[in-house]
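Review form for a predicted model. The reviewer records the input and the model, then writes brief findings.
Reviewer: anonymous (R2)
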Amino acid sequence: MKITRIRFPIIFILFIVIPAYSCSDNKAEYALIITIDGLRPDAIDKTDAPNLDSLINKGSYTPSAKTVEIAKTLPTHTSLVTGLTPKRHGMTKNKYSKTLGHTEFETIFTVAKKNGLGTALFVGKDKLSYINVPGTTDHYESTDESDDSVQKLTQSYITYMREHKPILTLVHFPYPDLTGHRKGWMSDEYLESVESVDKALGTIVESLKDAGIFQSIFIVITSDHGGEGINHGAHIPHSIDIPWLALGKNVKKDYLIKEQVYIYDTAPTVLQALGLKPPADIDGRVIKEIFVK
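Model under review:
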């Protein structure tokens, strides 16, 4: 008896796993980080800051993010760009000299340059040259705590952005911190300084729209520390809580962030938004909650 065998075609089903935010449709084309030195979260509510209010409504926000315990400008910014705590990156001083050199750890700028991206760094305090590792930024500029730093930095950034369109930029405003040290945190002068920075934010946003990149940019606006009286630090009240806002490409709008955000989460989150892999074994983590799935 002859047995007829029916041959069925063998079908292979291929499952393709696509990492979140890795495809061109999801990643941002540009990223901008703005740090407002010494900004307390409650100052936003106690002053006339229409641009910050508007941006908060357009993005994902928490008024209770945390900076590092040292709560000083240089250690906090080192944490912001490396994704490491001061215990890991070792910068615990708040003064800079050339003998200190530059951080030895990878930063958002070193990762960007390894991937061939344009970078720029604008700061209001020269001590932040510590995070400007040679060869990692295409443009570096410091106003070194001048009284008109906010205006100078705003115009310098806009001019450079229009001509070069860097993919990754950090802009650091030294106010209202400098006013806080002179006149006190939450003083009338301090709140006026916040309003000055708020106007600068409005100017920057309009320039991004004019340049045609606002719809494709990922923005983080945060602070390095708060303060009380005329100082800030580990044991001074209102120093640790900072505002943290993300908006732009694929970010939830009018959203209050539920998870705890730390300043060193900024680095991996910004790199993820650009479709770049953060350095391995860092303390910061991507704030996935803010992204539209």
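Findings: The radius of gyration is 21 Å.
Further findings: The first strand starts at residue 30 and ends at 36.
Recommendation: see findings above.
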